Amino acid sequence: MNNMTQAVHSQYIDTEITAESGLELLTNDEIQRLSAHTTGNDYELLKKCTLAVLNSTNITDDISFIQQQFDHFNIEVMQLNKGVKLKIKNAPSGAFVDGVMIQGLKEQVFSVLRDVVFLKQELETNSRIDFNSSSGCTNAIFHILRNAKALKPGVDPNMVVCWGGHAIPHHEYEYTKEVGYRLGLRGHDIITGCGIGAMKGPMKGALVGHSKQRITKGRYIGITEPGIIAAESPNPIVNELIIMPDIEKRLETFVRMGHSFVVFPGGVGTAEEILYILGILLHPQNQNIPFPLIFTGPTESADYFKRIDQFIGKTLGPEAQSKYQIIIDDPVKVAKRVQSGVTEVREYRKKVQDAYHFNWQLHIDWDFQESFDPTHQNMASLNLHPEQPLHLLAANLRKAFSGIVAGNVKEKGIAEVNKHGPYQLDGNPDIMDELDGLLKAFVEQKRMKLDYKGYVPCYQLR
């Protein structure tokens, strides 16, 4: 057994684990460079993301829960002739069974090391890859996925991206499981944001569907980023964890890897994802590319999608509304529509000779790729007026929601709001009225945070 437990306490455990996720095949020189990178800011990021993974058995989106453990938690990269060993001190005891780290969490810990540290030095030494241009971003994302062994050439399209909120009621969670089950029965693999709620449900349902069909190598891919992993720790079903540099690269990863998209009810994070994908689909260069997009939920969630559809119609218009289909309380219909949509994608990519495993054809503007820093100045400067191309308006609305997500659950965003007060958003009166109505609906429906009783808005609309 690879885990060697050194000490067991009532609440924390010290342990040593040996490398997986491809890091066991390193030269001594590579390991030395890897160890050298685990200092300063890189080390703090490694600690934070690893601790978030080990806390995944605790359901919370309060980053203070992890911050309280941070000073006592330590991780050290140790060099072995056969690879890498991690020495971990004061790991949460919930990550262990009888003193041995749960295998799935162990794999996720080394995924953190791979993406946060090892990939960083790879990108630094590869001058052909950069995040300062549109093509550079896409190439870097491809490199990250290839390094994570997430790209599977020669496999027919079957990846379904499922988006939705982490703070959802039980009946919505059960519905996501049922949709996932129907997708799993049809052999589809699942990609989500890797957290709980509408991210965990489809994976759990698909796992049962795969088991019934005797599919033993089902893929449950969780894509996250350092700013949000502490608030949305990976759920235990994720068997491929990928950490992207920021939210924009995370979103592009979804659309490059996915073959069909299902959106469940959620909050501002889900609205951000919807506006991101609609902004891309509204670009003139993407008009003829098949892109199955379905909004779905149980009967009780019909008003939620009615409100989302109204917001899209009033801000982006009928063209944006034509890009998706709303299916209420019919998991089988959703799965069949996904199936037919994936077939359309397969035929299109075969026709244009595009890869099945990575969507190179889709055009993504720099506005959707450049990292958006939600400072008060940047939030107040957003162009929320209709006198601009629709896809750019969608990009700016996406950034507004991204900032609210940061103010709700991200460490840096929370610090900004605590220091300077709520974000100020200003724009066209009609757009601001629609935005105000949608955000108030999210608050009333308890979709902002798990701790909805104590929720204080991190934004003000003018």
From TrEMBL:
Transmembrane segments: none annotated. Keywords: Glycosidase, Hydrolase. GO terms for molecular function: AMP nucleosidase activity; pyrimidine-5'-nucleotide nucleosidase activity. The keyword Disulfide bond does not apply. Residues 343-461 form the Pyrimidine/purine nucleotide 5'-monophosphate nucleosidase C-terminal domain. The keyword Hydrolase applies. Signal peptide: none annotated. Its EC number is 3.2.2.4. This is AMP nucleosidase.
